[in-house]
């Protein structure tokens, strides 16, 4: 066997050896994204299917299971992950979407697209209704409904309340399914074959967003963005929308940005392995280690340069105003317009750990809140979040990151808590910009759960009656957007329909779990230590 | 289950939800099956990432255990936190300030170089240190400057020496080192920077380009675009609305006038009835009487389809029901002359008006504003030619109200101090305006004593005075009077008032002649173009005016074609094209302003007395230097250009009610495209020789020649083309010379007729101010020319302000 790996080219899929957290060998399916040759030896950049991109890595040929090699399909329009085994769907709604996606895929490739495929619709639905615990029940939709326009969908959606009980559920499912199919179909027609990954993600993502706001009041308002982004993301990639987003819409995904380009970053005491691509100057990407000044975050090509830089840089804290300090934790506010250099350096660093962040546009419309921990050397950056000065969609966070060395220590929740404290001062409710990452989702869900449970547990009943609270009240107290409150209550399974009305029920498990979690949560934001006056950016003309 | 048979209400965010502990509700599980009735919210994650293995594992772990297990967390690439040299890298301590840190954003990093020395540099610097004085920081500063001084091209050594303040040897060493290093460098700069976007847009999809500038302001509202287009729409809306307001205003005025007319007519009818004038005899009588009061001369404007055939009785009735085409044949004046009728000499408008002017109804009508104009002053309408003549001494040059203009009442406080009034009457008693012997150029005869006066719109009027010697004066041979070449009048005692108004009891003709010749008497003769060519000049300048007005440019093409050939026939027989009413309206706009300017001019002129009077004799002793003339001409031209635009725009717009104009940029293309051939033509015509002019200045010589050669070629678009000529030639200096010559050539026929060189020069120095009629002693045969020169200037002022209003 001269070269068993000769056939292994970009786009191929095959099982690749990796160690799991228990240090056991496993052979997940992986896609070859790139091949390079280093000192006569081939290296393969692999993406493990159904694993996050941050685990992508360069592997040696001996880790490839060449026998099970799958060649790239000619029409590689398929999203790399289409809801196969191994993942547990989170909600019934997601499944019809996925399923219908698959269906539309089939029909899209077939010559007679749009032909009605008979599907046992009703049966499937009733199944989904009956079995709430088994979540993977799909609700297939007719591909014919692909042709349904959004306009025809939305009036219905407006009429029927989003939170309909069971009888309307079917309709909701149908709508949602057709909605997503619609978006997906369009994507499939227009997207380029080949290396483009996740061609459908934008459309569906937007649809999710749209659906999220699909309350009677908001439906019509939020329709335009959905259409808008679909149009803009069709076919040839164009510049992302300018609505201040630091979150990538992924329309610019190409093979370069799918691969990590920095090996290692040295920041203060820490060496970080970047998770994702970051547009640091290209000449620096070849370096084994990229050196960052711990305080101004300037990137330097060598330790010598860093040493020289440190003789000139006398910063010992982020170059902004400290608006919060309690103990060793401080928050600094940095204006993306006034302090471009730092903001850009921060974004470049953050991009290494945020997949969906985009650095396409400048940082002007953003404020950056950098959380630091003080020691005798100075205020060390722990994490940060960015925030639009003016948000059209109630976002109170654009990107949020705890640097890897500080992860899993409660700092992420602290950052989230701080972002809601700011919203409280502003007197608004807020929500993080979508899409969330996996870690983001977990962190936010955890924060929301704890925050809401804290309120529910503290509710006192006056004059012997049952304590009660409205969703709006919860939203007002916490500054958590109403939709997030509802989704959390649902996620925690607190909403029950009992004797003609909705009630919130706190199970023993929930209460115990919450109490245990709160014991571990010692890092809290103290609103008294916050010195923050929100600015009305709309009056300034400039951000 | 039977409990599911009813329909549950929607979850209401405003409705209080009772909070239960599960243990309090033992029967809850019976209702549990409808829990999922509330559709779950999306997670906000990307769909395909949501299904990722580790996330799902973590979520399920959370749900099962209520909290995360260590082995169920989402794995991430490792991070180390044990950099051994950290202490040495970040030496020293930083004490936490008591106060919250507050920082001025721009006070950081005052002048530190961005370049950081690397090991290679360090070796070089150490080596260099042995022979030269250099510190690492100094080296960094030098490299920093070199880097920042270089764009695509590297800084040269010469430039480096300018950039750096170190001594030459050090600069050369560092420069050489830098050049070598820079060439070996892969990146765009030795100071690594994030790739910038390229202007050509080629970097749209370059993943390494980051932090692009936002080209438009971030949208803060989803559904309202605050962009340029909507701004323009708002402007247009505003314009249209104000136009509508104006139109309504005018309609109101018209209807008022109609009512007034009706009342008057009724009154007349009643009067006639009471006088029993049933046959119309008394009426006819009255009208005949009025007709007798008409001036002795005949205004050479007779409407072609004159309303002479109107029966007098019919007149009143018909007037109101006149259809529009008829209406336009009637020349309208907006003002009645004052009771003291100035005696405008019939020949004073020669040569242009020497022939009967054919009044072109179309011309007038083109700029005619809706009938509101016509009927605003119905009392001025005349039914008979006599009445018309009386009311319309201006003929085709009658003042016509210009749409959108504001007209001010004459200022009483200023009206008294005319230069031609004697001080006793409150005037200035200017010598040059006293009654003096006056000889007309065409017809060439002495008209006796007359004084000049500046009339409405700057026209020069001659007030004649009766003397006992009138018959003698009339008999004087103009040629005899022409002989004395110089007559500095102001030296003479005869400038006294008594002398000029002449009660001198010497009736002897020869004595008078002698007096005149000896310049003891003021003798005024308009300085004119050479007499042997009056026709060509006149015709040409007229055409220019027509072009300027822009009327015929756009619409009456046939007429424009016809006129040049006509004009070749000579002035006597030429039915000279009428000036458009537009023109005359335009210059009326600025009456008040002009009055002021007149006074200024007069004072200036008095300062220039000597040269001014010299020119009286028809000889220009003072040579106009061509540069200043050119400048003056070009100044005129630019203003003309504006006028042209305006005229054109009004053609396009149809109406210019409130004077808000469209941007003229639209027309640029038009001009440019039409210019090229014509400019060629004009430059050719300048080269043809024919210096028949008396005056010594280059400019004027060129002028006459062009004007003559243009007698045939000029068409009504010339002005427009001249305007754009300037524009065209601006970029290329070579062409500019040519076209400036052109401009002069084209323009001066008008200028030179009336404006003495001194005045021209004045125009050059004051840049835009046009010489007035009163300037110098040259009462001209073509007084109207002056007004037209003023007009562009004034118009341009107006135009400018309008433009500013728009932007």
Description:
The complex is a heterodimer of chains A (543) and B (807). With 543 residues, chain A is α+β, with helices and mostly antiparallel strands. Chain A contains 14 helices and 20 strands. In chain A, helix 10 (411-426) packs across helix 11 (438-458). The longest helix of chain A has 25 residues, at 166-190. Chain A starts with 12 loop residues before the first strand and ends in a 23-residue tail after the last helix. Chain B is mainly α and 807 residues long. Chain B contains 32 helices and 6 strands. Chain B has helices spanning 47-50, 53-65, 86-89, 119-129, 136-149, 157-163, 168-184, 228-274, 281-292, 312-321, 324-329, 361-366, 372-376, 385-391, 412-415, 470-475, 478-481, 497-500, 509-517, 534-549, 551-554, 557-567, 581-588, 591-607, 609-616, 626-653, 665-687, 698-713, 718-729, 733-754, 757-766, 783-806, and strands spanning 17-21, 79-80, 436-440, 445-454, 460-464, 523-524. In chain B, strand 4 (445-454) and strand 5 form a beta hairpin. Chain B is elongated. The two termini of chain B are 74 Å apart. In chain B, 39% of the residues are buried. The chains are: A alpha+beta (543), B mainly alpha (807). Chains A and B meet through helix 1, helix 4, helix 5, helix 6 and strand 8 of A and strand 1, helix 1, helix 2, strand 2 and helix 5 of B. Chain A: Residues 257-534 form the MYST-type HAT domain. Chain A: The active site is at residue 433. Chain A: It is an enzyme of class 2 (transferase). Chain A: Residues 91-101 have a biased composition (Basic and acidic residues). Chain A: Keywords: Acetylation, Acyltransferase, DNA damage, DNA repair, Metal-binding, Nucleus, Transcription, Transcription regulation, Transferase, Zinc, Zinc-finger.
* Terminal CA distance of chain B: 74 Å
Q: What's the main sheet of chain A like?
A: 5 strands, antiparallel
Per DSSP, the total helix count of chain A is: 14
Classify the oligomer. heterodimer
Structural class of chain B: mainly alpha
- Identify the strand order in the major beta sheet of chain A: 11-12-13-14-16
User: Using only CA atoms, what is the Rg of chain A?
Assistant: 25 Å
What proportion strand of chain B? Answer: under 5%
Report the uncertain regions of chain B: 1-5, 298-389, 483-506, 529-578, 610-629, 631-640, 642-807
């Amino acid at each position: 066997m001269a070269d068993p790996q000769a056939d292994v080219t970009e786009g191929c899929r095959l099982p690749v050896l990796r160690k799991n957290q228990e240090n056991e060998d496993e052979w997940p399916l992986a896609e070859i994204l790139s091949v390079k040759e280093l000192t006569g030896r081939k290296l393969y950049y692999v993406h493990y299917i159904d694993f996050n991109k941050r685990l992508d890595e360069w592997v040696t040929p001996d880790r490839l299971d060449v026998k099970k090699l799958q060649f790239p399909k000619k029409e590689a329009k398929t999203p790399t992950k289409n809801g196969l085994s191994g993942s547990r769907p989170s909600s019934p709604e997601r499944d019809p979407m996925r399923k219908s996606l698959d269906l539309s895929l089939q029909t899209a490739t077939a010559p007679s697209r749009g032909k009605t495929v008979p599907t046992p619709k009703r049966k499937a639905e009733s199944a989904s209704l009956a079995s709430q615990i088994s979540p993977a029940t799909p609700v297939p939709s007719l591909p014919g409904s692909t042709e349904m326009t959004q306009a025809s969908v939305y009036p219905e959606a407006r009429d029927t309340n989003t939170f309909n009980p069971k009888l309307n559920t079917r309709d909701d499912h149908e709508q949602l399914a057709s909605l997503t199919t619609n978006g997906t179909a369009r994507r499939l027609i227009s997207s380029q074959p080949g290396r483009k990954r996740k061609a459908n993600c934008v459309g569906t993502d937007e649809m999710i967003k749209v659906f999220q706001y699909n309350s009677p009041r908001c439906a019509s308002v939020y329709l335009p963005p959905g259409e808008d982004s679909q149009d803009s993301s069709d076919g040839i990639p164009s510049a992302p929308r300018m609505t201040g987003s630091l979150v990538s819409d992924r329309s610019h995904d190409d093979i370069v940005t799918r691969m990590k380009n920095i090996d290692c970053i040295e920041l203060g005491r820490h060496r970080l392995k970047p998770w994702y691509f970051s547009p640091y100057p290209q000449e620096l990407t070849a370096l084994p280690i990229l050196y960052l000044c711990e305080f101004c975050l300037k990137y330097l090509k060598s330790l010598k340069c860093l040493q020289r830089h440190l003789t000139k840089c006398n910063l010992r804290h982020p170059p902004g105003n400290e608006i919060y300090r309690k103990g060793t934790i401080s928050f600094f506010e940095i204006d993306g317009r006034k302090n471009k250099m730092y903001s850009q350096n921060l974004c470049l660093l953050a991009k290494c750990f945020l997949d969906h962040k985009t650095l396409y546009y400048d940082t002007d419309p953003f404020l950056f809140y950098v959380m630091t921990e003080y020691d005798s050397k100075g205020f060390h950056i722990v994490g940060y979040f960015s925030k639009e000065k003016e948000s059209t969609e109630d976002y109170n966070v654009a990107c949020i990151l705890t640097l890897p060395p500080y992860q899993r220590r409660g700092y992420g929740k602290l950052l989230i808590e701080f972002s809601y404290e700011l919203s409280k001062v502003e007197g608004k409710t807020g929500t993080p910009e979508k899409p969330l990452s996996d870690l983001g989702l977990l962190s936010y869900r955890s924060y929301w759960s704890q925050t809401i449970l804290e309120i529910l547990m503290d509710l006192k009943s006056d004059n012997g009656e049952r304590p009660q609270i409205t969703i709006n009240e919860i939203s007002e107290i916490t500054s958590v957007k109403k939709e997030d409150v509802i989704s959390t209550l649902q996620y925690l399974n607190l909403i029950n329909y009992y004797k003609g009305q909705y009630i919130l029920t706190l199970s023993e498990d929930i209460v115990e779990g919450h109490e245990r979690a709160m014991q571990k949560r010692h890092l809290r934001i103290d609103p008294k230590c916050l010195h923050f006056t929100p600015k009305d950016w709309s009056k300034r003309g400039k951000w | 289950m039977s409990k599911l048979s009813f329909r549950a209400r929607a979850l209401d965010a405003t409705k209080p939800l009772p909070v239960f502990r599960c243990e309090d509700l033992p029967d809850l599980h019976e209702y549990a099956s409808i829990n999922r009735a509330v559709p779950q919210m999306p997670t906000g994650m990307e769909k395909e990432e949501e299904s990722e293995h580790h996330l799902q594992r973590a979520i399920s772990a959370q749900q099962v255990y209520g909290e995360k297990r260590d082995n169920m967390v989402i794995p991430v690439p490792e991070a180390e936190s044990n950099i051994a040299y950290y202490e040495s890298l970040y030496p020293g301590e930083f004490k936490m300030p008591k106060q919250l840190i507050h920082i001025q954003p721009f006070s950081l990093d005052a002048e530190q170089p961005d370049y950081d020395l690397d090991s290679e540099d360090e070796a070089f610097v150490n080596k260099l240190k042995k022979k030269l004085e250099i510190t690492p920081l100094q080296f960094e500063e030098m490299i920093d400057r070199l880097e920042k001084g270089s764009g695509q091209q590297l800084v040269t050594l010469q430039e480096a020496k300018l950039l750096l303040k170190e001594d030459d040897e050090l600069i050369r060493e560092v420069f050489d080192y830098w050049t070598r290093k820079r060439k070996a460098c892969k990146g765009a700069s030795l100071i690594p920077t994030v790739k910038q976007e390229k202007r050509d847009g080629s970097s749209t999809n370059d993943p390494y380009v980051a932090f692009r500038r936002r080209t438009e302001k971030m949208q803060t509202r989803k559904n309202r675009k605050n962009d340029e287009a909507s701004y323009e729409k708002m402007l247009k809306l505003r314009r249209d609305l104000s136009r509508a307001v104006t139109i309504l205003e005018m309609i109101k005025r018209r209807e008022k006038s109609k009512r007034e007319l009706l009342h008057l007519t009724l009154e007349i009818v009643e009067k006639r009835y009471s006088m029993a004038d049933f046959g119309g005899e008394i009426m006819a009588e009255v009208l005949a009487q009025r007709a007798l009061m008409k001036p002795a001369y005949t205004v050479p404007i007779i409407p072609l389809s004159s309303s002479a055939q109107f029966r007098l009785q019919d007149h009143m009735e018909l007037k109101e029901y006149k259809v529009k085409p008829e209406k336009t044949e009637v020349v309208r004046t907006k003002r009645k002359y004052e009771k003291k009728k100035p005696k405008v000499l019939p020949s004073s408008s020669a040569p242009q008006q020497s022939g009967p002017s054919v009044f072109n109804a179309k011309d007038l009508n083109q700029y005619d504003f809706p009938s509101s104009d016509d009927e605003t002053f119905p009392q001025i309408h005349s039914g008979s030619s006599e009445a018309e003549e009386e009311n319309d001494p201006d003929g085709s040059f009658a003042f016509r109200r210009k749409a959108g203009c504001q007209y001010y009442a004459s200022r009483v406080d200023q009206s008294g101090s005319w230069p031609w009034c004697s001080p006793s009457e409150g005037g200035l008693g200017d010598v040059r305006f006293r009654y003096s012997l006056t000889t007309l150029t065409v017809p060439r005869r002495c008209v006796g004593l007359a004084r000049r006066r500046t009339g409405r719109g700057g026209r020069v009027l001659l007030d004649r005075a009766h003397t006992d010697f009138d018959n003698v004066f009339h008999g004087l041979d103009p040629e005899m009077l022409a002989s004395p070449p110089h007559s500095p009048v102001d030296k003479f005692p005869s400038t006294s008032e008594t002398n000029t108004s002449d009660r001198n009891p010497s009736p002897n003709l020869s004595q008078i002649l002698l007096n005149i010749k000896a310049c003891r008497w003021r003798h005024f003769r308009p300085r004119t173009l050479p007499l042997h060519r009056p026709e060509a000049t006149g015709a040409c300048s007229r055409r220019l005016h027509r072009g300027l007005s822009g009327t015929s440019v756009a619409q009456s093409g046939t007429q424009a074609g016809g006129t040049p050939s006509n004009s070749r026939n000579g002035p006597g027989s030429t039915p000279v094209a009428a000036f458009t009413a537009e023109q005359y309206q335009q210059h009326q706009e600025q009456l008040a302003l002009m009055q002021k300017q007149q006074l200024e001019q007069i004072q200036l002129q008095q300062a220039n007395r000597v040269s001014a009077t010299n020119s009286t004799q028809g000889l220009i002793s003072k040579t106009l230097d061509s540069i200043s003339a050119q400048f003056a001409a070009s100044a005129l031209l630019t203003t003309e250009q504006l006028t042209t635009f305006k005229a054109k725009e009004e053609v396009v717009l149809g109406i210019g009610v409130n004077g808000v104009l469209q941007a003229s940029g639209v027309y640029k293309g038009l001009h440019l495209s039409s210019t090229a051939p014509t400019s060629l033509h004009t430059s050719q015509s300048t080269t043809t020789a024919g210096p028949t002019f008396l005056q010594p200045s280059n400019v004027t010589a060129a002028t006459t020649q062009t004007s003559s050669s243009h007698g045939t070629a000029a068409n009504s678009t010339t002005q427009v083309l001249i305007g754009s000529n300037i524009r065209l030639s601006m970029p290329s200096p070579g062409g500019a010379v040519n076209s400036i010559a052109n401009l002069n050539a084209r323009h001066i026929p008008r200028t030179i007729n009336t404006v003495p060189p001194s005045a021209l020069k004045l125009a050059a120095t004051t840049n835009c101010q046009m010489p007035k009629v009163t300037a110098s002693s040259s009462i001209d045969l073509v007084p109207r020319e002056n007004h037209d020169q003023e007009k562009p200037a004034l118009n341009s002022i107006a135009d400018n302000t309008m433009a500013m209003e728009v932007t």
